Amino acid sequence: MNRDDLGAIGQSAMGNALEAAVTGRVPGDEDAKPVEHTKSMASVMEEVVEKVGTSPGLAVDGGPLVGNMAAEYMPDLQATAENGADRIEPFGEKVEFDKQTMAQFLGAVGGAVPQPVAAGDCRPWRSAAATGRDRRP
Predict the structure, then answer these.
(1) What is the dihedral of CA 83, 88, 91, 97, to 10 degrees?
(2) At what angle do helices 99-110 and 39-54 cross, to 10 degrees?
(3) Separation of alpha carbons 67 and 27, rounded Å
(4) Are 15 and 65 in contact (CB under 8 A)?
(5) What is the DSSP letter of 62?
(6) Residue 68 near residue 27, CB atoms below 8 Å
């Protein structure tokens, strides 16, 4: 086994641990029942959004790991986007995301190119196809 293989295994293990921490389920277990989000789970998701939102390169090609975590917290992401209208019920503990960081996180997850955010604007990105830019080197 070479160093690259070990790095990939480590990244996969870390990703699986993070996904389990925010979902309360074994990653990849499609038959597992949803687990109501606890304060600890919500706290880890807040950290993931903060880290990926401020360093989008961590979401390698928006991969399934980060996408699965985003899907798990879609009601919380939607609640942040709707400016506190409280029309969306969280599944357990409510997560409070910083709107700008959340937008950058979603841009990284969705493969979009982040654009500057105006106050109160929940649409701070445009797709790479729409802008003619591609995120890949």
Answers:
(1) -10
(2) 70
(3) 12
(4) yes
(5) G
(6) yes
Which position has the token pair 């998701």?
A: 45
The two structure tokens encoding residue 113: 């190119």
Residue of 91, 94, 122 lying closest to 107 (CA atoms): 122
What pTM value is reported for the model?
Answer: 0.67
Helical spans, DSSP H, in the chain = 3-23, 39-54, 64-72, 74-81, 99-110, 128-131
User: What does the alpha-carbon distance between residue 51 and residue 98 come to, in Å, rounded to a whole number?
Assistant: 12
What residue type is assigned to position 119 of the chain? A
User: pLDDT digits over 81-113, tens only?
Assistant: 887 666 777 788 888 888 888 888 888 887 644
- CA–CA–CA angle 127, 65, 120 (5° rounding): 45
